[in-house]
Amino acid sequence: RREIVTKSIQIAVKRETFCASLLRLNENSFLSTLRTKLTWGLDKRN
Fold this sequence. Notes:
Blueprint: H1 30-37
């Protein structure tokens, strides 16, 4: 869920005693896609 807020809105974040899963990554996660597109870890000499 997304919400666009103006600068006048204040957001408070605090630690709670329970855990929640907020992010689930698929096989093709953002980092693996970025790694592929930027050729991180590949030998460019070949």
